[in-house]
Amino acid sequence: MSRSQLDTLIHMANQIAANNAHYGDDAAERVHTHLKKFWARSMKRLIVEYLHEDGSELSPLARQAVELLAQGQAEARPTSA
Amino acid sequence: MLNYYDPKQTPAPQHFLPERDYGTPARLSETLVSLEIDGVAITVPEGTSVLRAAALADINIPKLCASDNLEAFGSCRLCAVQIEGRRGLPASCTTPVAAGMQVTTQNARLAKLRRNVMELYISDHPLDCLTCPANGDCELQDMAGAVGLREVRYGFDGDNHLDAETDDSNPYFSFDPSKCIVCSRCVRACEEVQGTFALTIEGRGFESKVAAGQSEAFMDSECVSCGACVQACPTSTLMEKSVIEQGQPEHSVVTTCAYCGVGCSFKAEMQGDRVVRMVPYKGGDANHGHSCVKGRFAFGYATHPDRLKTPMIRETIDQPWREVGWEEAIAFAAERLKAIQARYGRESIGGITSSRCTNEETYLVQKLVRAAFRNNNTDTCARVCHSPTGYGLKTTLGESAGTQTFDSVMQADVIVVIGANPTDAHPVFASQMRRRLRQGAELIVVDPRRIDLLKTPRHRGAQHLALRPGTNVAMINAMAHVVISEGLEDREFIAKRCDAAGYQAWREFILDPRHAPENVEAITGVPAEQVRRAARTYAQAPNGAIYYGLGVTEHSQGSSMVMGIANLAMATGNIGREGVGVNPLRGQNNVQGSCDMGSFPHELPGYQHVGDPAVRERFEAAWGVPIDDEPGLRIPNMFDAAVAGDFKALYVQGEDIAQSDPNTQHVEEALRSLECLIVQDIFLNETAKFAHVLLPGSSFLEKDGTFTNAERRINRVRKVMPPLAGKQDWEVTIDLANALGYPMHYDHPAQIVDEIASLTPSFTGVSYARLDALGSIQWPCNAAHPEGTPTMHVEDFPIGLGQFAITDYVASDELSNRRFPLLLTTGRILSQYNVGAQTRRTHNQAWHDEDVLELHPADAELRGVRDGDWVGITSRAGQTVLRARISDRMPPGVVYTTFHHPGSGANVITTDSSDWATNCPEYKVTAVQVEKVSQPSAWQRQFQTFDRLQLQLLRGARDEAARPPAAERANE
Q1: pLDDT band per the 50, 70, 90 thresholds, residue B7
Q2: What sign does the dihedral B901-B907-B909-B914 (CA atoms) show?
Q3: Are residues B316 and B239 located together in one domain of the fold?
Q4: Is the pLDDT reported for residue B972 higher than 60?
Q5: Span B674-701, average pLDDT
Q6: Can you list the positions of beta strands (E) in B602-702?
Q7: Do B679 and B559 share a domain, yes or no?
Q8: Partner-chain contact A19 B560, CB within 8 Å
Q9: Average pLDDT for residues B939-955, to the nearest whole number?
Q10: Could you tell me where the beta strands, DSSP code E, fall in B243-355?
Q11: pLDDT for the residue A81
């Protein structure tokens, strides 16, 4: 059966993390960059919300990347409408 | 008419007209030979025939069995000439030029000989010229005229072939052997041009005749109906049925085929605005005068009664359609879109561009989304086929496109085909590949299925790595491991052209013993020795070329595999010259173009990221609106958002997501959730059954524009008939934009291309004037490459140095287990195209009128399944029922089907699993169970009911429109 939208996003983030895991110290930043470059605003919002609410199903690397995403958004917010 | 100049053909500049037949093929020698023909001095490359040399000097020697797309055969004797100092009258087609040769092509002796030859031919040929379908286009008739044949002294009563029976079995052409002169052109075309070897000359002397297969009917033989024989036939023996029915065309227009990514050039031969036949155009840079059964014959869909001709609207999808004028339909759509955005927000709507429409149309749809919808929710069907190519090649090589021309394969020593089935999906290029294979190139196929290319006639020793579906990345890593661990890498190339730190990191990664073929064997199922041998073959070849298809991209690791391929090519220095490269074989005609034109939600035209302020600034200045700096939703994300209730309206141009996208039930749920679905298509496709607005589309014959093929070649599409519904697709998008309050004004697609050129660095040199002058252009085309770029990355990469990417193998979630013990993989067949909307409405149905499930004998036996039984295929996503075909083309444990027929529900079983980087669906791996059943699946029964209802609702609209107005009815 189809997964819910959030489940899909969690799965996608974990998948991106798994495919970048080999990059070691750079891995979290690579995953973060990927999310930033390819995910729509609404998808980013949902995954960041999930991070704040629960985040338990994100793999450690995906979680780090989503944290970076959340930080970036928090920093960007005051200047952009 | 276009003048075609190809510098590759001859060392000396020599204009060559594609409409002319020069008798024998060009020779490429750099040594030039001078001779005199009828007193005219001429210099040609060594090896050129006297016949061709004469033709180049516009001296036309009569000929019948010669044609410049076939090697000389010397059987008709009509092209005999006299050569000073030589005995007899040699055939000019088989006589190569020699320095100082003096040739006479016309004198009394030659005239007598030629007349005698023709007299013999005509003594066994029906004299029904006036009623013959070839009347007006018959080389035999022309030659009888040229040699001045006036009588046949032998009479017509002797033994002859006049009663030979016609073979009408092929739906597109007939074979009338009573008119055959046994020149062997058809047999040679089948061998040399197509490479199928379906035709032979059977018998000897007077008994010799052309035979298909083992003297079977054409349809029962291995004939693939490419039309090369019909094209080659100098009489009406092999003749298009459309010409037999309609007569000879009176004018023709050169245009580009709208089927696969090869992008063949065709002459649409016309009577008024009716296409009589499509003839492959010799001046076409992609196909050089060859064709396949789809482009050559399957164009009847364009005038099929199912074509939508009137815009239609309805409030809900269970209501009958109401036929309305264009204005009302556009206003209805625009109002709905505006209302939805007002209620649910700017990001609640989006659009899907079509890989079947032109570059100009695709550009306008994404512009509509970005400038009128004011978001980046645009995507295209490349999402579900080649998006990993875009991602993977851009990351490693710096450009989202293949690196070569098709012709480059003729320089390849080793051809590696990964996850592609060229003979079925890219048939005209497959013929060229086979030509190279017959010349001795080696072939390595990496594919779970034994594809037809592996049984190329007159080629031996192909290596087949029949890997388990879903293990591509493990395989490519193993091959790279062999290259590096055995020291087969191209150190000079790597040092000069690639990023050193990236290479070092990758080198360490790939040298890890876990990538050794011996350790990967358990994953891929391919013996280590085979992998080692294949890697060595590729790495050690002077020129190794990789061609790949959807069997690479449509995986959870599609992007990793594309990067793995690029890694391997860079490591072996197989980039940046003829004969090598990384070549994605694109599925649909304009997949490359739709990607180039900014269809992806994160990229503006020319692969320029929406997050880049400098890029946005240029587009904002040209378009006069701010552009959203965040990527939009991709197709699968749109579906998820629709089901979640956040995404409410979609404009789909020329794309059938309900049939082509995976997990049909999820897609249907998403489409049902939309408050406004606008479908622009030539037929009521599966998606349109969920629509509220139907905008009739125009076929490629009804519009001007350009397509870009798999070799980045931009080709002109030319309108040959008026659009059936009155508008070309680009005009409809303009209307919609204007109705939404965003002004768009273009009078002709040429203006759209000018705008694209002004905004896209790789297209600055492209214009209709340049395209008409050059025939076609391979982008990048700009100041640095004014005539385009046949081979990419010759000096450097667009990103400077090549980037090796670390591609760890991560197994797919779609693993077989006890419940789903088999792996389903999907593919295509020659006669049908994609969702089949076009080809199912042609006689191509005669070859493939249902999708079947190919099942290995061992798996069949285990389940008690026999050939032809109905079998249910169940996955985690759903169930469907197909007929079984027992076949050992796949390894045990793997089953295979196609998705050309909507009722088959192949995508009911494919799942949400997708590529990690691009969300390209994993069509190629679905864990399934197969069992014998006696009735269609629940989905199929529901599909049939829904299909019947929607056709009724469509018919209702048409009947309603056909009725007289209410006032008149009242008087009845």
Answers
A1: very low
A2: positive
A3: no
A4: no
A5: 97
A6: 603-604, 608-609, 649-653, 676-681, 693-696
A7: no
A8: yes
A9: 91
A10: 251-256, 265-271, 274-280, 312-313, 322-323, 349-353
A11: 39
Question: What is the number of domains present in chain B?
Answer: 5
CATH number, domain of B166, equals 3.30.70.20
Domain contains B717:
no
- Residue B3 clears pLDDT 50, i.e. is over it: no
Looking at the fold, whether B540 and B507 belong to one and the same domain comes out as yes
The answer to whether residue B960 is domain-embedded is no
User: Is pLDDT at B327 greater than 90 in this prediction?
Assistant: yes
Q: Of B774, B766, B733, whose CA–CA distance to B750 is shortest?
A: B766
Say if the Cβ atoms of B631 and A22 lie within 8 Å.
Answer: no
Residue B901: closest CA among B847, B823, B824? B847
A22:B806 CB<8 A: yes
Chain B contact for A7 (CB, 8 A cutoff): no
pLDDT value at residue B959: 77
Residues B515 and B394 in one domain: yes
Using a CB–CB cutoff of 8 Å, tell me whether A50 touches chain B. Answer: no
For residue B612, the chain A residue with the least C-alpha distance is: A37
Average pLDDT over residues B281-290: 95
**Which pLDDT band, with edges at 50, 70 and 90, does B9 fall under?**
very low
**Interface contact A22-B918, CB threshold 8 A:** no
Residue of chain A nearest B602, judged by CA positions: A38
A23 inside 8 A of chain B by CB: yes
Q: Is residue B706 part of a domain?
A: no
Q: What is the DSSP letter of B458?
A: T
Chain B positions touching A1 (Cβ under 8 A) are 876-877
Size of interface A-B (CB pairs under 8 A): 70
Distance between B195 CA and the closest CA of chain A, angstroms: 42
Contact check, Cβ <8 Å, B808/A4: no
pLDDT score of B786 more than 80: yes
- Based on the domain organization, do B172 and B102 belong to the same domain? no
CA distance linking residue B824 with residue B913, whole number of Å: 13
Q: Which residues of chain B are within 8 Å of residue A38 when distances are taken between CB atoms?
A: 602, 631, 917-918
CATH assignment of the domain containing B888: 2.40.40.20
pLDDT bin (cut points 50, 70, 90) of residue B406 is very high
- SS3 of B650-663: the string is EEEECCCHHHHCCC
Report the amino acid identity of residue B299.
F
User: Mutate which of A10, A12, A15, A34 to disrupt the B interface (most B C-beta within 10 Å)?
Assistant: A15
The torsion of the CA quartet B900, B662, B380, B803, rounded to 10 degrees, works out to: -110
Q: Do B347 and A19 touch (CB under 8 A)?
A: no
- On whether both B278 and B317 belong to a single domain, the answer is no
Could you tell me if B327 and B422 lie in one domain? no
State the Cα–Cα distance between residues A32 and A16, nearest whole angstrom: 9
Is the model's pLDDT at B12 over the cut of 80?
no
pLDDT at A62 over 90: yes
Average pLDDT over residues B622-633: 97
Question: Could you give the ipTM of this predicted complex?
Answer: 0.93
Q: B559 CA to chain A: closest CA distance, Å?
A: 10
Query: Chain B residues within 8 A (CB-CB) of chain A?
Result: 347, 376-377, 509, 556-557, 560, 601-602, 609, 611, 630-634, 636-637, 640-641, 643-644, 646, 663, 665-666, 669, 806, 808, 810, 876-877, 912, 914, 916-919
| pTM for the structure as a whole | 0.94
With a CB cutoff of 8 Å and minimum separation 6, the contacts of B766 are B714, B753, B756, B757, B777, B779, B781
CATH of the domain at B652: 3.40.50.740
Q: What is the pLDDT of residues B611-622, one digit of tens each?
A: 999 999 999 999
Q: What is the mean pLDDT of residues B12-37?
A: 86
**Residue B100: pLDDT over 50:** yes
Q: How close is the nearest chain B Cα to the Cα of A21, in Å?
A: 8
Residues of B with Cβ-Cβ distance to A41 under 8 angstroms:
347, 630-631
Residues B356 and B248 in one domain: no
Q: Which of B303, B333, B353 is the last residue of a domain?
A: B303
- Is the residue at B297 inside a domain? yes
Of A8, A21, A37, the CB nearest to B611: A37
State the residue range of the domain holding B208: 129-303
Decide: B608 and B622 in contact? Cβ < 8 Å. Answer: no
The domain spanning residue B32 has which CATH number?
3.10.20.740
- Mean predicted confidence (pLDDT) in B64-79: 96
Residue B6 has pLDDT above 50, yes or no: no
Last residue of a domain, one of B525, B554, B584: B584
pLDDT of res. B713: 97
**Can you state the angle between helices B472-485 and B500-511, rounded to 10 degrees?**
100
